[in-house]
Write the structure tokens for this entry.
Amino acid sequence: MTAATPTSVRELALASRAAGAQIAVLSTNTKRSILQAMADALTAQADAILAANARDIAAAQAKDIGAAMLDRLRLDQSRLAGIVQAVRDIAALPDPVGQVTRRETRPNGLVVERVRIPAALCFYAGNAILLRGGSEAIESNRAIAGALRCALGEHGMPEAAITLIEDLRRETVLELLQLSDLIDLAIPRGGVGLIRFVAEHARVPVIKHYQGVCHLYVDASADIVSALRLVLDGKTTRPAACNALETLLVHRDIAATFLPRAAVALREGGVELRGCERSRALVPDMAVANEDDYAAEYLDLILAVRVVDDLDAAIAHIRQYGSDHTEVIATRDEGAAQKFIGALRSAVVLVNASSRFSDGGELGLGAEIGISTTRLHAYGPMGAESLTIERYVVRGDGQTRHGACAI
Amino acid sequence: MTAATPTSVRELALASRAAGAQIAVLSTNTKRSILQAMADALTAQADAILAANARDIAAAQAKDIGAAMLDRLRLDQSRLAGIVQAVRDIAALPDPVGQVTRRETRPNGLVVERVRIPAALCFYAGNAILLRGGSEAIESNRAIAGALRCALGEHGMPEAAITLIEDLRRETVLELLQLSDLIDLAIPRGGVGLIRFVAEHARVPVIKHYQGVCHLYVDASADIVSALRLVLDGKTTRPAACNALETLLVHRDIAATFLPRAAVALREGGVELRGCERSRALVPDMAVANEDDYAAEYLDLILAVRVVDDLDAAIAHIRQYGSDHTEVIATRDEGAAQKFIGALRSAVVLVNASSRFSDGGELGLGAEIGISTTRLHAYGPMGAESLTIERYVVRGDGQTRHGACAI
């Protein structure tokens, strides 16, 4: 043991696994009580958590880390209240563990059940978690994890069920990613660089949460006012979120009516527009969009704009530049909506609703652990249920596969 | 291009991905017709396939590859008929693609659907597949893939939807495993060495199919005749299968009645027994089992035997030595069955039924692509549905996340 690693990552993971075995078999009511206690602890320790966050913010500002990152880092009373509410929302969900998702009687009388059991991290899904945050949030993370562990301890649960890894060295992350005997799943949350690093080095399964290059396509048949609301809500309400809009595609037949109004409203919201030739013909003082703009996840008050010939051209654009995260169509034509849904493989496709609903809480999953862009295990927003797995329970009365056993 | 790689792996994967896009949107009826045509092609080309397999078998025998491996390699009329039937069974299943698995209306009126879309390989799940078999089966694989591609071609489908990689060099596998932009999932099927190699080197997600160290626990309350049938069926009907029994655990209160009878029946079936002290006290001429025996996947007519004090001891044994694949309890005590199910995380747990039912076809999935021992995405037997993924389709009437947009 060195000073830098008072406890080795392997020891932490071992303790976490042991805690997981306890968490896995808790009753729904016990888990709900503990979640409520966690929400209470976060509320009771709000001042300490916000003070810790203020120290992180001050340190980040001194390092000039950029507005989007700063926005992601910042906690205030209202955001903390949102976290607390999300914890309570999870406690109100049906318990995913133990759910029988399918039951079938086979011709030979076997009763086959598929039953959900814990698969990966997350308390309500009955799993222990190892958390490793960025250095910029270390104070906030310590305060929040402390509050949650508090609630666990008060209920006689092992605090190791929620472990914050405070040794932030890259070697430690590498070591963690090798522990395939102890860790079921890694979910890297952060920039593309981090996710690539984890995917490159992990020997444990990884669910990636890559960028959200989210599109709004305004169809020829769209309701203009509704589409204006969707573009404003999608771009301006939290530009640093992965479900914020990055590109606006407009059918040429509606562009002359829609685009000038949209440009006024967006600019009032502080949004910089970068458009194609045809967009600029309608909104002359718009900057020029290039290929990089169409592929960009700005996470900022910038929006790429393109006028397209038709729905097919919009779909082709999204296939070429999109990241399969979230796409929106504004239309009054059900056929166009169906075609848009069928032609795209994106994790979340919305018809006449804001891209900002691409979120676990908004879609009814309680809080979310991330939005998977890996087309495996879970795709799109992941709640507690996404962190369970189905196994088979089969009941018979002595059935054998080979009929004639000579007994 | 070299002679050894007439087409690069990347080119094959590109063609496969393009074919996958076509397969993904086929109607259920078209997929069913093509599956029936595949079954027909396998039947029509049966002689050629069996002749190719006979050449593989002859080459394998010359290399002395072992009885279990030889058994896995061998095709005959009856096994080929089983494959053909499995293909027809898949065609009779509900189409997993497009299924709406959940529909919910949120308080704000958004209608949230979870819809299955293709995720990974396998024709009925709407995916293209790249197959890379072992050198020992190259002739059989060529004949079978040829028949299947035939059926695709006849229906105007791209044959690249089923691609057999004939370049068997390890570098080629390595290259394949790096193509994370083109390949959604790798499923290594084979020995532990192969699976470790793939898990170690893959940059694409991997679903592992590790060994099946399957247990039968005969409880004190078990029906003796039923338990005898289960052990014989589990051990002798296909010992090379991953769902064959490897260890028999017997409650001490029933051991004196059960074990001697089981030993006679198993030995008549050609099974060698290796037991603990207490087993050997009841069946004196039994060989001694050591730690390695309890952890072994024999894939052969050998069975480890242990007398245990009670259900808890059986569970502890399985937790220590098992591989989380398949476990069976023979009991007439519902409480014991519930405890056995709850205490084990194995992918398939059976009560009073043979371990040999741990199989996609037997559990009603149609044929299976493998039995996942990865506690992620799918766990246990994987059918076509396991190779799809759910995404979100959300319908609204203009809902925005932030209520008050000033339009």
